[in-house]
Write a structure and sequence with these properties.
two-stranded antiparallel sheet, alpha/beta, globular
């Protein structure tokens, strides 16, 4: 059976379950639990004979019940009706208290499929396949397909954890990570950057045994604070042959911004969550729930601010080894915001080599109203002089129109950028912009030119927007409509932030 057939079979069941009020995200979670148990069962049988141990059912205090059944696939798949529903709920609660990857997969797990007959159908569907015999590329494709479908469900908000794979592949093709180097993502979502880096390393190197072992168990390090997203990332990685089912998880559930844990990495590839403010929800003395801006007071940060994006940028700089490389997706406000934003940009250019900025079009992300860029920089040792000499800009926004469904961005759309980036020797680049070719998308600005700009703004563009001057060449109506929505959403988000600030001032 092909991977697309399996995806459609598994997804068709999701539509059945929606009638019972089980959302796509909840369904995908249940698939994750069941897949994990089924694969563990397969690995305990010949030819693998892994000897994985699972606990007996536990009581509410987390202690194993002496005569309780073992929490494994064999016991689960043999049950029907009310007995199945009861056993499954107890199994999830019992496994959530385990250590290692097992505990992380089942953290805060609950049974969301209340109809035992439908739960039985999902179990049978998974039982029909020999998952361990499937190639990692097929298993991975199936799960990635499910994650993408889940991200498309705009009501669930899952799209904020899913970065378009074409963009990730282009970023990795520019950075070209090498074997036996560490790769971090402080807000890793469902693991898109890790998987693209893994694929790049495998496809572009003849790996020896030691390099393969390092890639599988020591290369990747991430943070993801949302339990459901973290479990999907772990499963996604495991299905792509990264990590061991009984090994220690490489993902931390901690907020990466809270502190510097001292670890340093060769590469940081990230798309931190959108939304400018870091906040925490509290209950005030009157018993009302309110949000409070949260600033991270860290000695390694240049600026103390509640702007989440600026905090992630500062944290990523801290995470890099000397000569470590970063590629980070960040919204426009990071490029032009004054105050803390200006100081962070100045320090970034001084202490790292900020060499490339890719301006992205709207219509790429499942979160509407986002105008984003990719910043590429290399960490450098302390120096009196600024390390940034020139910044190269590629404007893939002006006169570019994408939508998620009718005209999605593919890797082919970014091929020109990858070539001009020149990963083999990025110190040998040629502008496509000139006085004679003002429509060139690839242009260099010197450090001195940027410093002279108001607030040291990196929000630079030079191409004419044709839709403002050439009414005969307007985009298709659905693309125009999408862009209007994007701009309205962006404006609304800004107003929401202002309203929250004003509300917070009133409450103080």
């Amino acid at each position: 059976m092909t991977d697309s057939t399996i995806i459609s079979k598994i997804w068709n069941l999701a539509n059945v379950l929606r009638d019972d009020g089980v959302g796509y995200g909840d369904y995908l979670e249940q698939i994750t639990y069941l897949l994990f148990l089924k694969m563990a069962d397969e690995l305990n049988k010949p030819p693998y004979n892994k000897g994985l141990t699972f606990p007996k059912l536990k009581d509410v205090e987390g202690n194993e019940i002496p005569d309780g059944e073992i929490c494994n696939w064999e016991n689960l798949s043999s049950k029907r009706g009310a007995e199945l529903e009861s056993f499954y709920s107890q199994l999830l609660r019992s496994l959530s208290t385990e250590k290692g990857m097992l505990g992380q997969i089942f953290t805060k797990s609950q049974n969301k499929i209340q109809d035992p007959a439908k739960l039985s159908r999902v179990i049978n569907l998974i039982d029909q396949e020999e998952w361990s015999l499937m190639g990692a590329d097929i298993k991975g494709k199936i799960y990635e397909g499910l994650l993408e479908k889940n991200a498309e469900d705009t009501k669930s908000g899952a799209g904020q954890y899913f970065t378009p794979r074409a963009l990730i592949q282009a970023i990795v093709a520019c950075v070209q990570p090498k074997p036996k180097k560490t790769i971090a993502d402080p807000a890793c979502g469902t693991g898109g950057f890790f998987l693209a880096a893994y694929d790049w390393i495998v496809e572009n190197n003849q790996l020896d045994r030691e390099e393969k072992e390092f890639l599988k168990n020591k290369t990747f390090h991430g943070n993801e604070i949302v339990a459901s997203t973290r479990r999907m990332c772990l499963m996604n990685m495991y299905l792509h042959n990264i990590g061991e089912i009984d090994g220690e998880p490489f993902l931390s559930p901690n907020d990466a911004l809270i502190s510097d844990d001292g670890r340093r990495f060769n590469y940081v590839l990230a798309n931190p969550p959108f939304g400018k403010k870091s906040s925490m929800t509290i209950t005030n003395e009157a018993g009302e729930v309110q949000k409070e801006d949260m600033s991270y007071n860290r000695q390694d940060f240049w600026e103390t601010t509640s702007n989440k994006q600026l905090n992630f940028l500062q944290h990523i700089k801290t995470q890099l080894k000397i000569n470590g490389e970063a590629a980070v997706v960040l919204p426009d406000n990071v490029l032009f915001e004054g105050g803390a934003g200006e100081e962070v940009r100045k320090q970034l250019m001084k202490t790292t080599e900020l060499h490339t900025i890719l301006r992205l079009p709207t219509g790429l992300f499942y979160a509407h109203g986002v105008k984003a860029n990719v910043l590429f920089f290399v960490n450098k040792p302390a120096s009196k002089d600024a390390w940034t000499k020139d910044i190269w800009f590629y404007d893939y926004r002006t006169n570019v129109h994408h939508t998620l469904k009718q005209k999605p961005m593919t890797l082919a759309h970014l091929e020109e950028f990858i070539q001009l980036y020149n990963p083999k020797n990025r110190h040998n680049r040629n502008e496509t912009w000139s006085e004679d070719n003002p429509e060139g998308r690839w242009r260099r600005y010197s450090y001195e030119e940027v410093l002279k700009r108001d607030k040291t703004s990196l929000d630079i563009f030079w191409l004419r927007d044709k839709s403002l001057t050439d009414l005969d060449n307007l985009p298709e109506p659905e693309i125009l409509a999408q862009e209007i929505i994007e701009n309205l959403e962006s404006g609304l988000n800004s107003f929401r932030e202002i309203a929250e600030i004003l509300e917070g001032e009133e409450n103080n």
